[in-house]
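stage 2 :: seqdesign
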């Protein structure tokens, strides 16, 4: 397995909810808040879970949480 790491910017009001959702999927990813003021987060996961991570993030749209991939950060 290989490790993948991606950074995203999201509405800072949704950070706690998203973190709780990821934690409910035990050991699927490591979630870190890099800058709480701007909503910059980092997700580290095994590449075998990438489809699951994408599905979870896509589902967050139902709760008004949108992610924008952070580039050059």
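stage 2 :: out
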């Amino acid at each position: 397995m290989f490790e993948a790491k991606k950074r995203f910017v999201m509405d800072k009001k949704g950070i706690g909810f998203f973190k709780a959702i990821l934690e409910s999927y035990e050991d699927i990813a490591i979630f870190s808040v890099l800058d709480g003021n701007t909503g910059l987060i980092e997700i580290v996961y095994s590449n075998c879970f990438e489809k699951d991570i994408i599905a979870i993030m896509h589902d967050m749209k139902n709760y008004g949480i949108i992610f924008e991939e952070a580039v050059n950060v």
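stage 3 :: structure notes
- The helical segments are 15-24, 50-59.
- The mean pLDDT is 93.
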